[in-house]
Design goal:
Elements (H helix, E strand, L loop, with lengths): L1 E3 L2 E3 L11 H19 L9 H20 L2 E8 L2 E8 H7 L1 H17 L10 E2 L8 H11 L3 E2 L7 H17 L7 E3 L6 E6 L6 E7 L7 E8 L8 E7 L9 E8 L11 E8 L5 E7 L4 E7 L7 H17 L4
Parallel strand pairs: 2-7, 5-6
Antiparallel strand pairs: 1-2, 3-4, 8-9, 8-11, 10-13, 11-12, 13-14, 14-15
Helix pairs in contact: 1-2, 4-5
Length: about 325
């Protein structure tokens, strides 16, 4: 982020969607499960959903304990049998070194995307419960040469930001001047799942690359593969690799009722407009026929307008009565 007074501008974002705090929990859980199998003739608590749930809960408690002290013990019972497995912080860090390497790689990727070096940064703010692990803080401080800023609780920082941003949106909706200005970037590549004409292989045709400053409008031109197509489907995806693997499908724009004699290789223009509020508008157009289709993807919130109004009333009642919403 670049912060100048009340102007907040996102420069770059990076992430590993297949890595989270539960991956650290699982390393502890797997160690305990293997010890259990050794002691109780091959009985594996991971084979039982309830057993696995309890094991992960104990593992998470141990992880949190090891963030505060040098040693922790997991006491676990399953099908009438139990055992105690001690862990040291050094053990835990050795078990999860590869996960920390992935975290380091992600941090470096964000910096590379921003076209910056560590020396260009002035503040290192840790957000999220996993940043409480000493190994994470130490790694980031070694990488950056900065002392981690702990002026906000890592567990509460996101909710603080959400509250500030809610105030910003509320002021803007009432046409009053917001107390701050926010400019964001696209957090993932946005594109179309298409096919290579020569091989038929799937291709992720990125139209708006990750970390593009919003708002933005960009487009690409494609061609139909077969003659006589009655419809053209534009499959909009987010993220994924060059082939579209691991991408998230977020919508489909379909141009219908095409003439029966439409030749192969007919040009199809696809235009993406990504607004600051998260709304993505996709337009598919066949310029030779003046045919087009529109798709609006609302990405601002997981709540409907009715739900938002309901919560607004509950919060107003809470402020008036002093009771929790």
């Amino acid at each position: 982020m670049e912060i100048a007074g009340t102007d907040f501008t996102a420069i770059a974002t990076a992430g590993d969607v297949f890595l989270g705090g539960i991956d650290w929990d699982r390393r502890i859980a797997d160690r305990v499960a293997e010890k259990f199998k050794e002691k109780y003739r091959g009985v594996d608590p991971r084979d039982d959903p309830a057993g696995m749930h309890r094991l992960l809960r104990e593992a998470e408690d141990a992880k949190r304990a090891l963030s505060a002290r040098e040693q922790a013990t997991v006491s676990f019972e399953h099908v009438g049998n139990g055992l105690r497995v001690p862990f040291t912080r050094a053990d835990f860090e050795e078990m999860t070194a590869d996960l920390l390497d992935r975290t380091r790689f992600t941090a470096r990727s964000a910096l590379k995307e921003a076209k910056l070096q560590w020396k260009d940064l002035t503040r290192l703010l840790l957000v999220g419960g996993s940043s409480r692990m000493p190994m994470v803080q130490q790694m980031l401080e070694q990488e950056s040469g900065l002392k981690a800023d702990r002026s906000l609780s890592p567990d509460e920082a996101v909710s603080h930001g959400a509250a500030l941003y809610a105030g910003f949106l509320k002021a803007r909706s009432k046409t009053t001047k917001p107390a701050m200005r926010v400019r964001n970037v696209s957090s993932h590549d946005l594109g179309v799942l298409s096919k290579e004409s020569s091989t038929g292989r799937s291709i992720n045709a990125v139209i708006i690359p990750r970390n593009t400053v919003l708002p933005v409008t960009k487009g690409k031109r494609f061609k139909t593969m077969k003659a006589g197509q009655q419809t053209i489907a534009i499959n909009v995806i987010e993220g994924g690799d060059s082939s579209g693997k691991n991408a998230t499908a977020i919508g489909k724009c379909v141009i219908r009722d095409l003439p029966a004699d439409l030749p192969a290789g007919t040009a199809v223009e696809v235009l993406f407009t990504y607004a600051e509020n998260g709304r993505l508008t996709v337009k598919g157009r066949i310029p030779d026929l003046q045919r087009e289709a529109l798709l609006d993807v609302e990405r601002t919130s997981g709540l409907s307008d009715a739900k938002l109004q309901e919560w607004d009333k509950r919060l107003a009642t809470s402020r008036a009565t002093g009771k929790k919403a």
